[in-house]
Amino acid sequence: MKKKSLLLMLSMLLVLSAFLAACSSDSGSDTNDGDADGDQAEAPAGEPAEGGTITYGIEAVPEGLFNWAFYGIATDKEVLDLFDESLITYDENLTPQPHIASWETEDNKVYTFTFEQGVKWHDGEELTVHDWVFALETIADPDYDGPRYTNVQTIEGAPAKNDGSAETISGINVIDDYTVEITFDEARVNNLENVWQYPMSRAQFADIPVAEMSASPQVRQNPVGIGPFKVENIVPGESIELVKFDDYWQGEPKLDSIIVQVLDSSTVVGAIGQGDIDMIDLAPVNGQEVEALDNITVEVYPALTYYYVGFKLGTFNAQTNEITEDKDKYADLNLRKAMAHAINREEWIEAFFFGYGLPVNGPVPSNHWIAADSEDVNVYDYDPELAKQLLEEAGYVDVDGDGFVEDPNGEPFVAKFSHYATSNPTFEARSQAIVQYWNDIGINAELEMTEVNLYYEMVEKDDPSIETFFGGWGTGTDPDPTALWGSDQIWNYPRWKNEESDKLLADALNLEIVGEDQDVRKDLYVQWQELVTSEVPMIFIAELQDITALSNRMGGVTFDVSGKNSPYEWFVTE
């Protein structure tokens, strides 16, 4: 078997990183320490200047779906956060708070929502409850091609709308322009947190068929929102110009404009060091280099994201919202366990995340309140000898003596591993490292790198070329993981179908079972995490910290586990 030392790969990577930094930066060497204690952090700042423009960097090209109902990748969300916002916000404890909408309920089944009056869309139209109803009806429409149906399907009558047997959602009752009553199909703990919370402009979308919305100029080129900045110009793949919205409902923003600039990862350190970028979320590969710059503050704060390696176990029928476990290649549990034990997660994280991550043992990051302790889940520590034993027990043995196992039928076995490709120089190296771990236990593994936007389309559509795949998820403010793990959910990318899992997730939302007792609800989620880790539909790899670099002229930016504060509060000091 041919082996390539991981240490050699790491050495090459470090040389590459040093070369990129030397080519792109002539900065000083003072270190600005990030705040990594998990409390709310605020960047140092002087007095706000009048107006001003900042340049906000992003390291990946947006897919260009600039509407909450249709977006699918984190880069588009970064842009959306700058010009549009939710009806409800969440505090540092992930508790919902009134924002544009407030609410009342007596039974967790029927909610009455009241909107602020005078809130304007960027085109000058006033926001009313009709815009929210329009969004809910759009997402429930049979022709809707986005991934958010899970956030409306629990409204009474939404399934009838979705299957075409009803024209409207019966559980929506508009009382007046600023008041609407929503009735859910049953009382649940999280009906409020789960329901879709972003309106769509009726004035912009009313004449567009639902099937054509995601490709429309209203989504791709000329999106409107209700946030503090509005989109002025989009140069696809390069930049987005946003200018302040004078009629923003909370008052005039402090900044005049924000320029979103797409960067190649190899130029990030230089762009920041030269003052070309005022704010950017950093990939870990650039974190330590940027911390050494004397014109930058680096904020490190807890995240709710994790990375994994998934196994394609089946396929998803988008017409019926059903998963069928019809792929046999990775059906053997011992094979999946062996591939999990083969990966040295600590070594891999240190090599490719440079101190900004830790191993994660399940589908919930450790800083979320429902996260199970390690003793309550199945942990797959690095153990190559156990991995080889599990392979042998499953019938995967080296028949022809070439150093790689054949499958139980004696046929060649090649594990294909897919990873998305961007300009980040670590992605291919970290993917090759995982392939090498599998090679080292006798599994012949091959890597395929695919452009990031095409990659997630292939994963979501169960492209036959996707077998094992790398991915990342963020746990939302609502801890309910049904949208990622339910047996009828499109975002259940491994296509793992399990009745016990579905029942535990449903019970955790059932008021008759959990009532107001968060400990009871957490216990159900801990049982669910134990089940997931025993079945290994994914290998859970790493949980990360978020890293944001701010130029010393930036002010008013705060962070907590819920993310950044609104750009409405940001300013410059010069």
UniProtKB/TrEMBL annotation:
This is Oligopeptide-binding protein AppA. Coiled coil: none annotated. Residues 41-51 have a biased composition (Low complexity). Keywords: Signal, Transport. Residues 100-486 form the Solute-binding protein family domain. One of its GO terms (cellular component) is periplasmic space. Residues 1-20 form the signal peptide. It comes from the Bacteria. Residues 28-51 are annotated as: Disordered. GO terms for molecular function: peptide transmembrane transporter activity. Pfam families: SBP_bac_5. The keyword Cell wall biogenesis/degradation does not apply. Belongs to the bacterial solute-binding protein 5 family. InterPro entries: Opp4A, Peptide/Ni-bd, SBP_5, SBP_5_dom. GO terms for biological process: peptide transport.
